[in-house]
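Dear colleague,

As promised, here are the two records you asked about, laid out in our usual form so they can be pasted straight into your sheet.

NAME FIELD: protein one
SEQUENCE, THEN STRUCTURE:
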Amino acid sequence: MELNEITGQIISAALKVHTAIGPGLLESVYQTCLQHELEKAGLVVRREVALPILYDDLRIDGKFKIDMLVEDCVVVELKCADPILPIHKAQLLTYLRLADKPLGLLLNFKVLICGGE
């Protein structure tokens, strides 16, 4: 499956989840619902993937976790923040570099995506 197809399915699933349950919930709720939608679509999803830090001959475990890894190639970081800050973007870029993955998505479930009160 191509990266564009995978990311398209992730974004569609995220929009479906957000439309159904709206903003204002915990990140873990969106993570569970998004995983459910992606697995229904036949994608392989791993949550809270440990990301060790390697420095010289030192290995540091348990300090960082990727929110979701889809099809072992797309890092998905979920936020419920207003606004997304540069540190959130830096976190995703660091995870991509450390995990040696080609693509990442930073999804913010805090914002309202459709009309409302």
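NAME FIELD: protein two
SEQUENCE, THEN STRUCTURE:
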Amino acid sequence: MKYYIKQKVFSWRDQFTVKDEAGNDVYFIEGELLSWGKKLYVRDRSGNEVLYIQQNIWNWMPNYTLFMHGQEVATVKKELTFLRPRYSILGPDWEVSGNVWEHDYEILEDGDLVASINKEWFTWGDSYQLDIADDSNTLLALGVIITIDCVIAAQQAANSSS
């Protein structure tokens, strides 16, 4: 199934809306304004928390833990590399392949497609198209994608301030 993420351009905290192919709001993502490390809450249409993403701040490289229904389901870690960014996903046996910097990559499990991510260019704010192969992986794939986007955004902000 296809989903679309649209980030708000002017927002004091992270805010995203995830829409389905018909343009209906499916999930709402909102970050905490003041917290140690990034914390993001994913809520369904009814306002129920369905996924929680927390940055683990005492690590050398970016590291985030994903929770569903209060249970840890995955950890996303950026690996130390010199050429291209690489991420490990602990929990499910997933790997990230493609051009992460350009937001054009895939998440694979044993060579099978879990999700593909493509950035839509020339839009107001960042917009992404997600194609998730199996609906049972939707929330976890969405969490991994949002986490990778957080790492990239933080690195771009750090690079632009220096």
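A couple of things worth noting about protein two: The chain has a mean pLDDT of 85. The two ends are 40 Å apart (CA to CA).

Best,
R.
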